[in-house]
Amino acid sequence: MTSSSAAVAARPGPDPAVIIEVVHVTKSFVSPDGSPLPVLDDISLDIREGEIVALLGRSGSGKSTLLRCIAGLIAPTSGEVRYRGNVLNGANPGVAMVFQSFALLPWLTVRQNVELGLEARGVGPAERRQRAERAIDTIGLDGFESAYPKELSGGMRQRVGFARALVVEPDALLMDEPFSALDVLTAQNLRAELLRLWREKDFPTKAMLIVTHNIEEAVILADRIFVLGANPGRIRTEINCPFPQPRDRHDEQFQALVDQIYGLMTGRDTRPPAHIWTVATPGEGSPTDTPLPAASVGGMSGLLEILVGHGGREDLPQLAHELTFEVDDLLPLVDAAQLLGLAEVTDADLNILDDGRVFVAADILESKRIFARRARERAPLVRAICRALEATSNGTLGEGFFLDLLRRGFSEDEARQQARIAVDWGRYGELFDFDANTGQFTLEPAASEDGHANVGAEARAG
Ligand code: ADP
Ligand code: MG
Fold this sequence. Notes:
This protein is an alpha/beta fold. It has helices spanning 63-71, 110-120, 125-138, 154-166, 184-199, 215-221, 252-265, 276-279, 297-309, 316-322, 327-339, 354-361, 364-378, 380-390, 399-407, 412-428; strands at 18-30, 36-48, 52-56, 78-83, 86-87, 95-98, 172-176, 207-212, 224-229, 234-240, 313-315, 343-346, 349-352, 396-398, 432-435, 440-443. Helices cover 39% and strands 19% of the residues. Residues 63-64, 176 line the site of magnesium ion.
């Protein structure tokens, strides 16, 4: 080895600039029926000195789980995480974490909260106090040392969260959506301050890893971005983000990258290029491999109306901006429109399709009919529920039947969420109804196989 790194080379071999390596990590939890629930699938990545890395993905893509594996708080099901060349076997000694929810102890003052991390590492009281005060100054909390968390605004509380993590001078700082509970301006402000600290020469932390679902945040902060796909979480792309700091979100290249990532996160850019959904023949896809997007029919219709108002084509970031939507709110609506074949995404633009125009222009009865036919053809869970109900003698089944099916591919929460969305869609299309008191799904009598939902029918089967 020609490397002459003196202090830290734990053993010959590893690149001294690599702080953390994630090597073929998979993670499964156990679903309520005892079967494995894969959450992370074969994740490999490394984090090097001098860089800010973002893990970008929609909610449920396993970001927090991956971060917890890296912190050594949970063990991977297979694969390993290494810190400075050493395989973790417990808490990662080189990292500290900042959480979305601040996680402060309400009965301790700001200074006591900040000292906690040092106490856990066996630092004596005098040094604790001195270092805590320095961290508190650094992060702009001067004068609030004796305040209790409840006396602080959200932004100030998160500063305490940062001070508590930075006080231990971690080799790498791990952050799990640290700005997402803050209002837009506070988040911007704190992000800028973090970058300012990061650029200071004596900042002891050598790398930062941030988990986020916010595309712009990733592009503002990161040198490299890993885009995670869901079900199970895997790395879809690694993106280099070479723009000098501080970055200007109105810059053309910045916008182009944001656009590109929007395209990636709507799943359209994964080849084959065009018409993925039109190629997908009805009958393909199962309720677990094609989940229902978490979108209400009303929300999706609203989005399509706005789209028609924009001449039928609009930039996704622009739509999100106009609706003051977060990605997590907008993308499910986009997914629903794509799943139903009413719109499609190309190059981060949402385009209305002919059937989408008909849907928007139709009166309520006709749009319900279109929706019912499309949902039955293209949404596997809706189709599965209709078929199962049709196969019974009285058109009725308990929700347990469907939840058991869903639990094979989803966690308990997600299974229930899928069932809730299906009920919303089934009701809107008058395909089936659900009685929350009895827990029974009931086929709408007119929702026959040929897709003619007889809108307005009052009678119930059974
Ligand atoms: P993200 O942070 O991207 O929103 P998470 O890592 O929190 O995603 O969760 C990914 C998936 O793993 C979700 O489906 C979630 O329900 C599931 N999950 C997370 N933690 C557990 C757990 N302790 N037990 C069972 N399922 C879990
Ligand atoms: Mg999370």
